[in-house]
Amino acid sequence: MKIASIHQPHYHPWLGLLDKIAHSNVHIVLDDVQFRRRNYHNRAQYNLNGESQLLTLPVQNKGLQTHGLKINEMNITSQKDLQKNFKTLQHRYGKTPGWQLIADELNLIYQTHEDSLLQLNLKLLQLMLKCFKINTPVILASTHGVSSVRNQRLVDLCLKTKADIYLSGNGAKKYMDDALFKSHGINVKYQNFNHPSYLQQKDSNFIPGCLALDWYCLHPNDASIWFKEQCSNSIEGKEFSLAL
Protein backbone atom coordinates (compact mmCIF):
# COMPACT_ATOMS: atom_id res chain seq x y z
CA MET A 1 0.00 0.00 0.00
CA LYS A 2 1.36 3.41 -1.01
CA ILE A 3 -0.59 6.59 -0.33
CA ALA A 4 0.01 9.71 -2.41
CA SER A 5 -1.33 13.17 -1.70
CA ILE A 6 -1.19 16.04 -4.18
CA HIS A 7 -1.60 19.72 -3.41
CA GLN A 8 -0.70 23.10 -4.82
CA PRO A 9 2.06 24.87 -2.86
CA HIS A 10 1.03 27.20 -0.04
CA TYR A 11 2.86 30.22 1.30
CA HIS A 12 3.26 28.98 4.88
CA PRO A 13 1.31 25.70 5.05
CA TRP A 14 -1.68 25.33 7.35
CA LEU A 15 -2.41 22.37 9.63
CA GLY A 16 -4.83 20.71 7.21
CA LEU A 17 -2.08 20.43 4.60
CA LEU A 18 0.40 19.08 7.15
CA ASP A 19 -2.18 16.53 8.22
CA LYS A 20 -2.59 15.33 4.64
CA ILE A 21 1.16 15.06 4.16
CA ALA A 22 1.60 13.22 7.46
CA HIS A 23 -0.90 10.58 6.30
CA SER A 24 0.90 10.05 2.98
CA ASN A 25 3.83 7.93 1.86
CA VAL A 26 4.69 10.57 -0.72
CA HIS A 27 3.46 14.13 -1.19
CA ILE A 28 3.44 15.69 -4.65
CA VAL A 29 3.58 19.47 -4.94
CA LEU A 30 1.44 20.50 -7.90
CA ASP A 31 3.76 23.26 -9.07
CA ASP A 32 3.08 23.23 -12.81
CA VAL A 33 -0.51 24.47 -12.86
CA GLN A 34 -1.74 28.02 -13.31
CA PHE A 35 -1.17 30.54 -10.55
CA ARG A 36 -4.45 31.86 -9.18
CA ARG A 37 -5.02 35.27 -7.67
CA ARG A 38 -6.45 35.57 -4.18
CA ASN A 39 -5.30 32.06 -3.35
CA TYR A 40 -2.93 30.74 -0.71
CA HIS A 41 -0.05 30.42 -3.15
CA ASN A 42 1.25 33.74 -1.85
CA ARG A 43 -0.71 34.47 1.32
CA ALA A 44 -1.39 32.94 4.72
CA GLN A 45 -3.81 33.56 7.56
CA TYR A 46 -2.77 34.36 11.13
CA ASN A 47 -4.47 35.45 14.34
CA LEU A 48 -3.80 38.95 15.64
CA ASN A 49 -5.68 39.99 18.76
CA GLY A 50 -8.49 37.57 18.00
CA GLU A 51 -8.95 38.75 14.42
CA SER A 52 -8.01 37.03 11.19
CA GLN A 53 -5.23 38.72 9.25
CA LEU A 54 -3.62 37.86 5.92
CA LEU A 55 0.12 37.79 5.40
CA THR A 56 0.45 38.53 1.68
CA LEU A 57 3.61 38.38 -0.44
CA PRO A 58 3.29 40.45 -3.63
CA VAL A 59 4.23 38.68 -6.84
CA GLN A 60 4.81 39.83 -10.40
CA ASN A 61 1.71 40.83 -12.33
CA LYS A 62 2.99 40.85 -15.90
CA GLY A 63 1.67 37.97 -17.97
CA LEU A 64 -0.68 36.53 -15.36
CA GLN A 65 -3.83 36.94 -17.42
CA THR A 66 -2.47 36.88 -20.96
CA HIS A 67 -0.06 33.97 -20.63
CA GLY A 68 -1.48 32.03 -17.68
CA LEU A 69 1.78 31.78 -15.80
CA LYS A 70 2.28 28.61 -13.80
CA ILE A 71 3.05 28.60 -10.10
CA ASN A 72 6.65 27.55 -10.76
CA GLU A 73 7.04 30.55 -13.07
CA MET A 74 6.00 33.13 -10.49
CA ASN A 75 8.54 35.49 -8.95
CA ILE A 76 8.38 37.65 -5.84
CA THR A 77 8.31 41.35 -6.64
CA SER A 78 11.10 42.53 -4.33
CA GLN A 79 13.39 41.73 -1.42
CA LYS A 80 11.70 44.53 0.51
CA ASP A 81 8.45 42.56 0.48
CA LEU A 82 10.24 39.52 1.89
CA GLN A 83 11.69 41.56 4.73
CA LYS A 84 8.35 43.21 5.41
CA ASN A 85 6.71 39.79 5.74
CA PHE A 86 9.43 38.56 8.09
CA LYS A 87 9.05 41.63 10.29
CA THR A 88 5.28 41.07 10.42
CA LEU A 89 5.86 37.52 11.67
CA GLN A 90 8.49 38.75 14.12
CA HIS A 91 6.09 41.37 15.48
CA ARG A 92 3.36 38.77 15.95
CA TYR A 93 5.43 35.87 17.29
CA GLY A 94 8.69 37.41 18.50
CA LYS A 95 7.79 36.99 22.17
CA THR A 96 6.44 33.45 21.87
CA PRO A 97 8.47 30.48 23.18
CA GLY A 98 8.84 28.84 19.78
CA TRP A 99 10.09 31.90 17.93
CA GLN A 100 13.57 31.69 19.41
CA LEU A 101 13.86 28.08 18.23
CA ILE A 102 13.25 28.86 14.56
CA ALA A 103 13.93 32.61 14.22
CA ASP A 104 17.45 32.16 12.84
CA GLU A 105 16.42 29.55 10.30
CA LEU A 106 13.32 31.48 9.25
CA ASN A 107 15.31 34.70 8.99
CA LEU A 108 17.91 32.94 6.84
CA ILE A 109 15.16 31.78 4.47
CA TYR A 110 13.82 35.32 4.11
CA GLN A 111 17.24 36.99 3.97
CA THR A 112 18.84 34.74 1.36
CA HIS A 113 15.90 33.88 -0.87
CA GLU A 114 15.90 35.38 -4.35
CA ASP A 115 13.00 35.35 -6.79
CA SER A 116 11.05 32.10 -7.07
CA LEU A 117 7.78 31.93 -5.14
CA LEU A 118 7.75 28.14 -5.46
CA GLN A 119 11.21 27.71 -3.96
CA LEU A 120 10.30 29.96 -1.04
CA ASN A 121 7.14 27.95 -0.40
CA LEU A 122 9.10 24.71 -0.50
CA LYS A 123 11.62 26.02 2.03
CA LEU A 124 8.84 27.09 4.38
CA LEU A 125 7.07 23.74 3.94
CA GLN A 126 10.24 21.83 4.79
CA LEU A 127 10.74 23.97 7.88
CA MET A 128 7.25 23.16 9.15
CA LEU A 129 7.63 19.46 8.35
CA LYS A 130 10.76 19.48 10.50
CA CYS A 131 9.05 21.38 13.33
CA PHE A 132 6.11 18.95 13.37
CA LYS A 133 8.43 15.96 12.88
CA ILE A 134 6.79 14.77 9.67
CA ASN A 135 9.12 12.72 7.50
CA THR A 136 7.05 12.16 4.35
CA PRO A 137 9.13 12.75 1.18
CA VAL A 138 8.04 15.71 -0.96
CA ILE A 139 8.47 15.79 -4.74
CA LEU A 140 7.48 18.16 -7.55
CA ALA A 141 4.84 17.27 -10.13
CA SER A 142 6.86 19.07 -12.80
CA THR A 143 9.64 16.48 -12.56
CA HIS A 144 7.34 13.79 -13.97
CA GLY A 145 6.39 15.41 -17.27
CA VAL A 146 2.65 14.79 -16.92
CA SER A 147 0.62 16.84 -19.41
CA SER A 148 -2.90 15.57 -18.69
CA VAL A 149 -5.45 17.70 -16.83
CA ARG A 150 -7.94 17.48 -13.98
CA ASN A 151 -8.60 14.00 -12.57
CA GLN A 152 -6.48 12.29 -15.22
CA ARG A 153 -3.52 14.38 -14.15
CA LEU A 154 -3.91 13.19 -10.56
CA VAL A 155 -4.23 9.60 -11.74
CA ASP A 156 -1.10 9.89 -13.89
CA LEU A 157 0.90 11.34 -11.00
CA CYS A 158 -0.21 8.47 -8.77
CA LEU A 159 0.87 6.00 -11.44
CA LYS A 160 4.22 7.76 -11.86
CA THR A 161 4.90 7.40 -8.13
CA LYS A 162 3.46 3.83 -7.99
CA ALA A 163 0.79 4.88 -5.49
CA ASP A 164 -2.29 2.68 -5.20
CA ILE A 165 -4.20 5.04 -2.88
CA TYR A 166 -4.88 8.70 -3.54
CA LEU A 167 -5.60 10.83 -0.46
CA SER A 168 -7.90 13.70 -1.38
CA GLY A 169 -9.10 16.63 0.63
CA ASN A 170 -12.72 16.29 1.71
CA GLY A 171 -13.68 19.49 -0.07
CA ALA A 172 -12.74 18.00 -3.45
CA LYS A 173 -15.37 15.25 -3.39
CA LYS A 174 -17.67 17.00 -5.85
CA TYR A 175 -14.83 17.25 -8.39
CA MET A 176 -13.43 13.76 -8.00
CA ASP A 177 -14.02 10.95 -10.49
CA ASP A 178 -13.48 7.96 -8.20
CA ALA A 179 -14.35 5.53 -10.99
CA LEU A 180 -11.50 6.85 -13.14
CA PHE A 181 -9.03 6.20 -10.34
CA LYS A 182 -10.52 2.74 -9.76
CA SER A 183 -10.12 1.86 -13.44
CA HIS A 184 -6.37 2.41 -13.02
CA GLY A 185 -6.13 0.34 -9.86
CA ILE A 186 -6.09 3.32 -7.50
CA ASN A 187 -8.41 3.68 -4.52
CA VAL A 188 -9.48 7.13 -3.37
CA LYS A 189 -9.58 7.98 0.31
CA TYR A 190 -10.82 11.26 1.71
CA GLN A 191 -9.23 13.22 4.48
CA ASN A 192 -11.57 13.80 7.41
CA PHE A 193 -9.68 16.66 9.00
CA ASN A 194 -11.03 18.06 12.26
CA HIS A 195 -9.09 21.20 13.01
CA PRO A 196 -7.33 20.95 16.39
CA SER A 197 -7.77 23.85 18.78
CA TYR A 198 -5.16 25.42 21.04
CA LEU A 199 -4.68 28.67 22.94
CA GLN A 200 -3.72 31.31 20.40
CA GLN A 201 -3.99 34.47 22.46
CA LYS A 202 -5.36 35.10 25.92
CA ASP A 203 -8.99 36.21 25.98
CA SER A 204 -9.35 35.91 22.19
CA ASN A 205 -11.38 33.68 19.93
CA PHE A 206 -9.70 30.70 18.29
CA ILE A 207 -9.31 31.15 14.54
CA PRO A 208 -8.92 27.93 12.52
CA GLY A 209 -6.96 27.78 9.29
CA CYS A 210 -3.97 29.80 10.45
CA LEU A 211 -0.47 29.03 9.27
CA ALA A 212 1.03 26.04 11.09
CA LEU A 213 3.82 28.29 12.35
CA ASP A 214 1.22 29.78 14.70
CA TRP A 215 0.85 26.59 16.72
CA TYR A 216 4.54 25.81 16.78
CA CYS A 217 5.55 29.27 17.98
CA LEU A 218 2.95 29.26 20.74
CA HIS A 219 3.50 25.67 21.93
CA PRO A 220 6.85 24.42 20.59
CA ASN A 221 7.30 21.59 23.08
CA ASP A 222 3.90 20.06 22.52
CA ALA A 223 2.77 21.03 19.01
CA SER A 224 3.95 17.92 17.16
CA ILE A 225 2.65 15.57 19.88
CA TRP A 226 -0.71 17.32 20.16
CA PHE A 227 -0.94 17.43 16.39
CA LYS A 228 -0.51 13.67 16.18
CA GLU A 229 -3.01 13.00 18.97
CA GLN A 230 -5.70 15.31 17.61
CA CYS A 231 -5.31 14.52 13.92
CA SER A 232 -4.39 10.83 13.91
CA ASN A 233 -7.90 9.72 12.91
CA SER A 234 -8.13 11.89 9.81
CA ILE A 235 -8.16 8.81 7.58
CA GLU A 236 -8.28 5.10 8.20
CA GLY A 237 -5.48 2.67 7.50
CA LYS A 238 -2.42 4.92 7.64
CA GLU A 239 -0.14 5.61 10.56
CA PHE A 240 1.27 9.11 10.81
CA SER A 241 4.64 9.54 9.10
CA LEU A 242 6.04 11.22 12.20
CA ALA A 243 9.54 10.87 13.57
CA LEU A 244 8.51 10.80 17.23
Structural class: alpha/beta
Q: Count up the helices.
A: 9
Approximately what portion of the residues adopt beta-strand conformation? Answer: 5-15%
Query: Per the principal axes of the C-alpha atoms, what is the gross shape?
Result: globular
Radius of gyration: 18 Å
Largest sheet: 5 strands, parallel
The total strand number stands at: 7
Order of helices and strands: EHEEEHHHHEHEHEHH
- The largest beta-sheet arranges its strands as 5-2-1-6-7
Distance between the termini: 22 Å
Helix content: 25-40%
Count of domains: 1
Overall pLDDT metric: 90
> What low-confidence regions span 5 or more consecutive residues with pLDDT below 50?
236-244
Structural key phrases:
disordered C terminus; alpha/beta; 5-stranded parallel sheet; 9 helices; two-stranded antiparallel sheet; 244 residues
Could you explain the architecture of this structure?
Helix 1 links the parallel strand 1 and strand 2. The C terminus is likely disordered. With 244 residues, this protein is of the alpha/beta class. The protein is globular. It is 36% helix and 13% strand. It is built from 9 helices and 7 strands. Helix 4 packs antiparallel against helix 5. The strands form 2 sheets. A 5-stranded parallel beta sheet has the order 5-2-1-6-7, sandwiched between helices. A two-stranded antiparallel sheet has the order 3-4. It has one domain. The longest helix is centred in the middle third of the chain and has 15 residues.
